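FW: tagging you since you asked about this chain on Friday. Here's the raw sequence from the shared folder, copied in full. Didn't touch anything.
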Amino acid sequence: MIHAISTHLFSNHRLTTAALERIQHAGIAAIEIFCAPQHLDYNNRAQMMELCHWFRDSELKVHSIHAPLYTDDVWGRSGPHAVITITEPVKSRRILMVDEIKRAIELAELVPFRYLIQHVGVGGEEYDERRLEAAFASLDELGVFARQRGVEILLENIPNGLSSAERLVHFLGETHLHLGFCFDIGHAHMREGVEAAFNIMKDRIRSTHIHDNDGVKDLHLFPLLSEGGAIDWKKAMDLLRSRPDQYPLLLELKENPEFKHPYDSCAEIFERLESL
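HL: got it, structure written out here
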């Protein structure tokens, strides 16, 4: 499998070409860019053009981008108005949120990528038919906009009542949306279990988020290196290897001062996972 990482690892810092060069130097083949204003300001033309010129001459490829979750630079802590969700039932508000996601997709016009990773709802959100209808309206519009730019939308399983593996499969069956999945192994571990979620989602998985946790909190730990993780990585890798051509092995980790050279740590994780 292709080895990739998400820039979620340093998403509290501005995305610079220096950081990208360090990732490339670590032997990592591809990245997912996490769209957070403090990290990637897709409305900042200067930052976008800097990235465009760098990727044009680089071997490092952008596999995907993660859709923005907030409009502020403090992870939504400025208030509910900062949250971006495609399940917003009030149409006037939802239009603004969908437009914000479109601005992120437009990055593909400068830096080509294949997939947009999209949440359905926010963490902890309960099941609600009205919100699913809002999600369908949002994705129907976003899908057309993305396809015009060569981008496919992947839905991610997250810890809420709308986005379990089973709920996502049911949602696509009901709406007939032709979308794939990003299989988040840490989120699956917190809900129905890694094996159960993988078996439900496997036909549509086109990308992954690899990280560890204790089964309760969404910690985004370094697999096989951090203390406190509880995923059975031997079993998980056996599952992931069953469809190696469908998706990359993509780490989505949280910055940890314990790991002073995080890209080297990522390379070590890949080596350990592949040796299991």
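FW: Strands lie at 3-6, 30-34, 61-66, 115-118, 152-156, 180-184, 205-209, 249-251.
HL: agreed, and The longest strand covers residues 61-66.
FW: great, closing this out.
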